[in-house]
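$ ./design --mode recover --in tokens.txt
reading tokens...
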């Protein structure tokens, strides 16, 4: 391999490496800002997830698990709800609590979405 070819390969590697480092930095920054809690309401509690929110609709979230569209979300089974989901960050007896799927917001303990995972 000639010195000129080695230089071209080296420059290409540096360009791609620089782009990769930049992309990694941006994705890390975006992930950090998404994970931070949102503003709280006047009572100091996190706002509740709106069922009309795009993410909530995509996941089939309902405040009342008995109202889940069972034809669309076939993985739903009676008895599943946010309070017995591994992602629910409150006590199982709490009516509302934070969920890792909806950062900075609360979900209903009696609610459900398709991200439900059985609590260990």
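writing sequence...
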């Amino acid at each position: 391999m000639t010195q000129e070819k080695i230089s071209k390969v080296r420059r290409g590697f540096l360009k791609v490496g620089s782009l990769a480092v930049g992309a990694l930095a941006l994705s890390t920054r975006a992930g950090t800002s998404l994970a931070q809690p949102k503003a709280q309401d006047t009572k100091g509690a996190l706002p509740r997830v709106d069922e009309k929110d795009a993410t909530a609709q995509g996941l089939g979230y309902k405040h009342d698990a008995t109202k889940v569209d069972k034809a669309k979300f076939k993985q739903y089974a009676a008895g599943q709800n946010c309070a017995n989901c591994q992602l629910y960050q409150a006590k199982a007896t709490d009516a509302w609590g934070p969920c890792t799927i909806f950062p900075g917001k609360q979900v209903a303990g009696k609610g459900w979405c398709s991200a439900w995972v059985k609590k260990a």
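exit 0
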